[in-house]
Give the backbone structure.
Amino acid sequence: MNTKTVIPSVAKLAVSEVDMANAIRALAMDAVQKASSGHPGMPMGMADVATVLFNRFITLDPSQPEWPDRDRFVLSAGHGSMLQYALHFLLGYEDMPVEELQRFRQLGSRTAGHPEYGHARGIETTTGPLGQGIATAVGMALAERMLAARFGAELVDHYTYVIAGDGCLQEGISHEAIDLAGHLRLDRLIVFWDDNSISIDGPTSLSTSTDQAARFAAAGWHVQRIDGHDMEAVADAIEKARRAEQPSLIACRTTIGKGAPNLGGSEKTHGAPLGDVEIAATRKNIRWAHAPFQIPDEILRSWRAAADRGRAARVAWESKLATSPRRQEFESAVAGELPDAVFEDLDAFRKEHFEKATKVATRKASELALAVINAATELTVGGSADLTHSNLTITNGMERIAPSEFSGRYIHYGIREHGMAAAMNGIARHGGFIPYGGTFLCFADYARGAMRLSALMGQRVIYVMTHDSIGLGEDGPTHQPIEHLAMLRATPNLNVFRPADIIETAECWELALGEKKRPSVLVLSRQNLPMLRTIVPEGNRSARGAYLMRESVGRRDVTLIATGSEVEIARAAADLLHDQHKVRAALVSMPCWELFEEQDENYRAEVLGKAPRIAIEAAARHGWDRWIGESGVFVGMTGFGASAPAADLYRHFGISAEAIAEAALAIIQKD
Amino acid sequence: MNTKTVIPSVAKLAVSEVDMANAIRALAMDAVQKASSGHPGMPMGMADVATVLFNRFITLDPSQPEWPDRDRFVLSAGHGSMLQYALHFLLGYEDMPVEELQRFRQLGSRTAGHPEYGHARGIETTTGPLGQGIATAVGMALAERMLAARFGAELVDHYTYVIAGDGCLQEGISHEAIDLAGHLRLDRLIVFWDDNSISIDGPTSLSTSTDQAARFAAAGWHVQRIDGHDMEAVADAIEKARRAEQPSLIACRTTIGKGAPNLGGSEKTHGAPLGDVEIAATRKNIRWAHAPFQIPDEILRSWRAAADRGRAARVAWESKLATSPRRQEFESAVAGELPDAVFEDLDAFRKEHFEKATKVATRKASELALAVINAATELTVGGSADLTHSNLTITNGMERIAPSEFSGRYIHYGIREHGMAAAMNGIARHGGFIPYGGTFLCFADYARGAMRLSALMGQRVIYVMTHDSIGLGEDGPTHQPIEHLAMLRATPNLNVFRPADIIETAECWELALGEKKRPSVLVLSRQNLPMLRTIVPEGNRSARGAYLMRESVGRRDVTLIATGSEVEIARAAADLLHDQHKVRAALVSMPCWELFEEQDENYRAEVLGKAPRIAIEAAARHGWDRWIGESGVFVGMTGFGASAPAADLYRHFGISAEAIAEAALAIIQKD
């Protein structure tokens, strides 16, 4: 199935690849030593594999690190970051001069402890939390196939290469990732396993006996085992992997810290500098007579020659793009530019449902909004972790992605929340698509590791998280989120939207789509909610994060602040206070804390008001004191939920108009 | 290796096991129908397997559901809860009369949507979030072997049986669990996989192609494949599994909703009532002429006979215990009773290190405290997710648990945070041990799903989470917790301890050990911290959650509230304010929010004071407004961290005595 026919060959070299690999080893051990911190063992152990891969196979152009049809390289074993930085320097990435290697792990350097997307050009994704790299790479390899299905092999035809360690393969996320990749037959994905039998605590035999090759084979992968220090074996395996019709694992038997005569093969090389004595011994052992950070010209030239191969490929590709009739379309997709129609249609959608006063669950509202969005753009790619008809993430005409069949735009991620989130990171990082995916809000727990990376990398990944409170009812406390809103809101650079009705849901979708550098979570109800707006929706009121849904007339005795499904209840409380107690309550809907925090002081003061405040949310209080102040009251959950019909639960836990009204009466100063 | 020699045989039955299985089917479909909510498909599909298991093999006594040497049964596919409730009713558990089945999923019933530990007797663990059950069962099976190693097969000799679904096996946590179980050769663990080829979205072929049998075999399991509706095949497989020297997977090919003539085999039976028409058709199909919830006496008698087998086993075991010379020791272990020496020695430890003014990282302080604890009791079982020498969780003389070798008390969990947390839940639920386990605080993300269950079930599981802030330095933002304290503090029924020095660390360990019904997280620094106490430690000051570490003399101009490594910085700020600005600052150390919240109003008011307040914590602000009030200031993190030496990071992010002093000067009203 692989259409790429470039036959790799060893370039005519002034120096051997062994020298080229030793350059990596020297830079890694010297940089870690200078920083007094870092992980030399992995770069030294995988230097031979990396040299063959980068010298003979991988297609990258250091002068244009982001050209769309480049191969992707993911260092899943991110603690071995010096491997990547050394490669970038040797290949001639302009933003990776030797000075950056000398500032390894220092404040403001591009050479962070683990590869950080955005710090240095060519770092495709942030890694470090183990297993994230391989799972993100699955998303990249999937996006490559999907984009190729749309634009053809002329424009999209590249590999995704991963280096993973024992840790990556022990983590649960790796299971979700390799199962999904094997199922879909992502034949452009090639994973090198640094099989060095060492983890931090000591030999891996302390904690694992798994036959990884058999495990990958069980998941449908093409599997090879090689000596990771035999360069021809590495090359041969890569060639075979590129021809395989499945994703490939190349298990590379290596020696951690290879080259270090005394510590090589020991966990002592994993996460600490080798020390001056061992470094001197290593220099002797690998016959490296050069000073720290000095690379002889002829070795550097060999590496630069490898880069030239990539440059030529990039130039050839650009001329294909230049003459392609679909150039504009391709460039727009890769840039992630949404057509205006998306926003115009959402605007019309809001007006239509305002007129109809549509009463639906916000998950259903999301489905209706998605129908509009997905009709107006092809950029969106949906999916769910096996809750499609609960999350309501599929819309008419969305074909599913299936094994070796990538022309659709709906992904059955399986019961793999973490794998889904990481794959979405990979899809977003690859470019060409805007991924969204669904699960229950409670299972944000399972996806946490990858969701944090969405935020850290600032990727437009949209999480559709339904069944967002005790309002889901009978499934009970294991399925009812309590602390999850706090967990998500406390996460930097993540917008958490909890819309109250169909209008806000459409607004929040618009905001999520418009945030090119921030992930969003749409937190949606299982239960039906009435349309709450009282004036024709012009503009996007949710854009300010919180707004006065209903001002009190004349004076304000109390301010009720609520989100999502509790706004309806707060409104009923306001009515009750007015009708029965002549108390004037202002009602604030606060669909997005993060956007509200960004507003100016005046706007926030106007919305929050000076009257006592009550916050209502069917979740933990944690964080709400920010908005209600010391005299404020919180009406919500104080512990875990329970299994019962939703209405019974709201009554049981005292989240009701009556309880809110009672709380209001207790705190306000009557005139 | 299995010492149990009971040969199971089919009891003389008045009715066939088919009838017994159909009783489960009828109860499941009728209860779901009555509740208008629930999952009939799995109980109906697995009724045959469950009948053979419970009728012929499992050793339980419904009249004494908690006797220590019972077999453990874990319904990992927790949505099929009606299978368990039906079994409990049929076997005659007193707290599971038919009325409870009729109140399935209603408020206050014992029959929650998913099995909830503590709701009905005999529910060994809470399940529902997929994969948790199988991973918890690994901990139970491990605890069984460990307890058997201590007390011998006379007193400890039982199996752990699990029913798992496709969802459980797709989740990443299952990988961590089966790898660990296979590695340790937990031969008393037997997992039935309900291989029905259906998940919520439809056929499992939508999302997976994995050969599960091969996958388990790769992890070192004994694997069998059978027709899950062939009762003799089930029995034969169980017998073989019990004799195996590895953990066993029995892949049971089943039809979801078996018995339902039109919907059986379809995902439509998974998560919704069958409806009156299909229920009537099912009754006809399985020749079940009885009214809803009516079980003929002879069928009930057959089930009760199975329970009698368990009762006899329990009685026999009790007489062994009665004559055992180690009876008291055994009972005390199972009750989890710590000797007084633990607390006395910790008290002496605090006094000793107060005298020495020991300056160590709190992770090191934790290691020193653990040395005292582990010497004074054998109940504690330690471990780490491959960060033993970073978390400092092992103490002198702790032997490791190894494959088929269970006499030690230290577990190398591997790079499996989620699996570790779930295994600790299982160890705690099994009884006989107090598990603690370490990882970096940031990887609480990976363990979240199981940590939540520790809290929901109220288990004494102790998480040792080190490298708790930007203070870890060079590893950078992927490893630096920001939102994690908020995430953990927002979780109900979980004590989060962040001690400031060696004295508080010992106090927090004491509190964690003393909490029999609540898990604890010890949040510990990588970097060294001075001993901060100024008076001889009497009692446990951390027990009130927060306390005045230093009162200001005469008047209080400002209150500085800090936790962990920031208390030292706050103290320096207080000195600076005093010496340079004549500002009197009180210093509050707040190692545990949860315990402080439990104090009376007066105590809290005294600690917090009336002066303006500044909170200092190298983490997200989220939640701190609770303690600082509207006029308060927070000095901490506003986004993700960075990679650099720790001191540079504290300076860079403005968490310093100077910054705190400046903030204090800005908010206080000078006299």
Remarks:
- The mean pLDDT of chain B is 96.
- The longest helix of chain B spans residues 297-323.
- Chain B touches chain A through 109 residues (CB under 8 Å).
- Residues 556 and 610 of chain B are 8 Å apart (CA to CA).
